[in-house]
Amino acid sequence: MPTYRDEVVVLRTHKLGEADRIVTLLSRRHGKIRAVAKGVRRTSSRFGSRLEPFMVADVQMYQGRNLDIVQQAESLGAYGADIAQHYDRYTTASAMVETADRLNEAEATPQQYLLLVGGLRALARGDHAARSVLDSYLLRAMALSGWAPGLGECARCGTVGEHDFFLAQLGGVVCSACAPAGSPRVAHDTVALLRALIAGEWDVVDAAPHRTTAAASGLVATYAQFHLERGIRSLSHLESSR
């Protein structure tokens, strides 16, 4: 059976036997991969540390019948240690890789891989607030999967304007005529921050007050979990640490 090489992000790992692990990877060219890394739990393993969650590696794989086998791994981005030293970065990274793991195979594109690598790199460097990095990642990941929120015109009827409601089930901001009775209002500066997060306008994001970033984070979490059709477990740890 053939071998192949690819760049990967390690999403999660599971113990297998006494010395092996099953690793779930998001790759640049082959989508999501589940593979066996033999002997990586031994202290003598040559590449065990390169196959921990949040690590980016260049791997050589042997194509197996059910699970592929990792033959070699060279580090491309050793982000795990820097992320693990900070609780907010660790829980944020956990939510990001959990989201990436939820992607269907058809959605695990090179763009999703590059987006995740960029987010983990920003977390490891401490470039921006960890929760803002997560919010930007979630919005962009949803957009790449075809679920970009409507943040300009009404997501339901298309009316252009500054609308006062944001409903995940309707696809984003909606006008007063389309919003169901009793819908909570959303501040215009919160919607503006959502636009900045999805566009990567970090000068705007970094300058936003806590009240606005907290409101935006709540909307992003609701929107992402609605479209993923189940909760992101790691988000509960983020909420408890706020």
TrEMBL record:
<protein>
    <recommendedName>
        <fullName>DNA repair protein RecO</fullName>
    </recommendedName>
</protein>
<dbReference type="InterPro" id="IPR022572">
    <property type="entry name" value="DNA_rep/recomb_RecO_N"/>
</dbReference>
<dbReference type="Pfam" id="PF02565">
    <property type="entry name" value="RecO_C"/>
</dbReference>
<dbReference type="Pfam" id="PF11967">
    <property type="entry name" value="RecO_N"/>
</dbReference>
<dbReference type="InterPro" id="IPR003717">
    <property type="entry name" value="RecO"/>
</dbReference>
<keyword id="KW-0233">DNA recombination</keyword>
<keyword id="KW-0234">DNA repair</keyword>
<comment type="function">
    <text>Involved in DNA repair and RecF pathway recombination.</text>
</comment>
<comment type="similarity">
    <text>Belongs to the RecO family.</text>
</comment>
<dbReference type="GO" id="GO:0006310">
    <property type="term" value="P:DNA recombination"/>
</dbReference>
<dbReference type="InterPro" id="IPR037278">
    <property type="entry name" value="ARFGAP/RecO"/>
</dbReference>
<dbReference type="InterPro" id="IPR042242">
    <property type="entry name" value="RecO_C"/>
</dbReference>
<dbReference type="GO" id="GO:0043590">
    <property type="term" value="C:bacterial nucleoid"/>
</dbReference>
<dbReference type="GO" id="GO:0006302">
    <property type="term" value="P:double-strand break repair"/>
</dbReference>
<feature type="domain" description="DNA replication/recombination mediator RecO N-terminal">
    <location>
        <begin position="1"/>
        <end position="78"/>
    </location>
</feature>
<dbReference type="InterPro" id="IPR012340">
    <property type="entry name" value="NA-bd_OB-fold"/>
</dbReference>
<keyword id="KW-0227">DNA damage</keyword>
